[in-house]
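Batch job 17 of 40 flagged for manual review because the log was empty.
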Amino acid sequence: MTSESAFARTPLRNVFLLGFATLCLVIALAIAWALGVSLFFPNGSLAGLVVDRADLIRAHVDYLMMAQFLFLFALLFRQYRIEPPLWVIGAACYGAFFNPLGFLLRALRPKIDPATIPEPHFPLQAGVSFTLTTIGFLGAAALAVHAAWRSRSEALRPRVTAKLEAD
């Protein structure tokens, strides 16, 4: 199979999902490099930008997980020939990008004094991101489970019919 024929059969939505998964992976790898450089050069300018290494590690791990989920969903959609609705792709990609971004921003910004009120828009932004991630990922998983169940049922149907005819 040539790459041209594989691309021609892959729906554009799935290509977008693969591209977005790759973006999340690139961000995770860039964060890994930043962590490594700042670890070995603690007095360097890059280390000076990092306020909280733990949050940077959380962002790195979160972007890796989001990339894995998006790659997995893209492969499942391709395997079962699913063309997911745009709302599933949009919700999953929005959440995959913005959930880890909160950790990344916390890692690079000075900590807020607990006595002060947090930014008023942050709970709304986090709530929207968490909600869309949940909707997108559960929607993608439900589509894959439904397609797998349907595929299994179709695969079993001829054997049951043949067995009934033999009796």
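Reviewer: the log was empty due to a logging misconfiguration, but the result itself is present. The chain has a mean pLDDT of 86. Unflagging and moving on to job 18.
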